[in-house]
Amino acid sequence: MSENLARQFLIREDITFLNHGSFGACPRPVFVAYQNWQLELERQPVEFLGRNLTEAMRQPRIALAAELGTIEDNIVGLTNATLGLNIVAQSLDLKPGDQILTTDHEYSALEKTWAYVCRRTGAEIVVVKVPLPLQTETQFTDAILAGMTERTRVLFLSHITSPTALLFPIERAIAEARRRGIWSVIDGAHTPGHIRLDLDRLGADFYAGNCHKWLMAPKGSAFLYARPDMQGLIRPLVISHGWTEASGRPGVLGAFGNSPFIDELEMQGTRDPAPWLTVSAALDYRRDNDWESVAAHCQALAQDTARRLAERTGLAPLSAPEFCAPQMVAMPIPDCDVAALKLALYDKYRIEIPVFRWQDRCIARLSVQGYNSRPQMDLLIDALTDLLALG
């Protein structure tokens, strides 16, 4: 299966690519659909951007909303999850002394986002240390709830963490935040196409996710979700054609006939909309190739590889299996020069994989996608055994 699927991707054959989690990889049929959208744009830019774009942008919203357990009016297409989360973070009315509650597992770009917001507003960041190894939902939820105070205004959590590849059980924490009147903002950069999502049932106020990672759409495709009663809080970072002077008033539509939430964020000047317009093709590709079965195979391969490496290092995993991202696992390795190890893996073995230091741990973060194979996992184990002298 992996050999056949590998031929459907554009990954260089001389590279063992084990880093799908960073930027994703687009299958050939999806990439062709992407290029076709770009060609259509260039053949008649005025018709495409001036007359047809509003309806064209709507179609991926319909398809993706069905996949994510919501309706098209609750999501808007953007270029990446970081942009969506910045829009939310800079829209919320925070004041000096307000607290943003988060964890010590968050993505560095968003840590900087909230630091910027705090510098501008006088709010404060409160970081909860998530107990490791993560073994139970109660262990996680109790840590989060213990950090909530009367001053907590925002709960910011990753659904799947970037540095540690953990799948946080966020449902009860979100429900408690809502009960207390705390805005919940969720970083779902790694979730679309990776785990099943039902956004309306999850109940988060705001949720941003990438489509270019595990959904395998082109780079530059992502979404922002907002619950209907929260959409009026959103203020665009860029004021452009989608804005009207009446925007934000109850019952007022945006400049292009959608809600202000959609029109203000979608229509912000000239850009290439092809990545977002290709999301439907990515969803079709997954269905046509029974991607649930592919993903299950990848999950088994990822977990088996992590188990094999742990046997050689003697280092415990960061969590029980149910709290590890299905196709991505942060594997603890012995203390080392992580930059030198990453370079050696690439130069000597042509393996592309993130190796980094997180807090007091050294980690190699493995991603397994449909184009990966068991022989590639064997190569990784052998390479780490050699370079870390594990034999």
UniProtKB/TrEMBL annotation:
It comes from the Bacteria. Keywords: Aminotransferase, Pyridoxal phosphate, Transferase. SUPFAM superfamilies: PLP-dependent transferases. Residues 46-353 form the Aminotransferase class V domain. One of its GO terms (molecular function) is transaminase activity. Gene3D superfamilies: Aspartate Aminotransferase, domain 1 (3.90.1150.10), Type I PLP-dependent aspartate aminotransferase-like (Major domain) (3.40.640.10). Pfam families: Aminotran_5. This is Aminotransferase class V-fold PLP-dependent enzyme. It comes from Devosia ginsengisoli.
